[in-house]
Amino acid sequence: MSEFLKAFEQQPTPPVKKHFVTVQGKQCEVSLEKKLEVIKNGEENYVITKFGIALRKPSRLKTRYTVLKRADNGYKFEHGDIHWPNSVEQNGETWQIEYE
Q1: Where are the domains of the chain?
Q2: Global pTM?
């Protein structure tokens, strides 16, 4: 029985599995949980920071809205009511798109 215990103690330990992800063209070693998170969100959504791999901040969407402005050719409105354009004339008003 002692020979069995000696053989068991001398058995080599199994190698530790390493996990890698490619972020910004560089391969980084990460834990299994981090690798699964990167696969879930997509490698293109991660950046390398001085603290490690981090999820990229989402870009701020620009708000789009229309504004009534003077233009070379524009509408003439009935009694100033923007819902009733009468005609198109020089130096009238038009709806133009602006971004915030």
Answers
A1: 2-55, 64-99
A2: 0.51
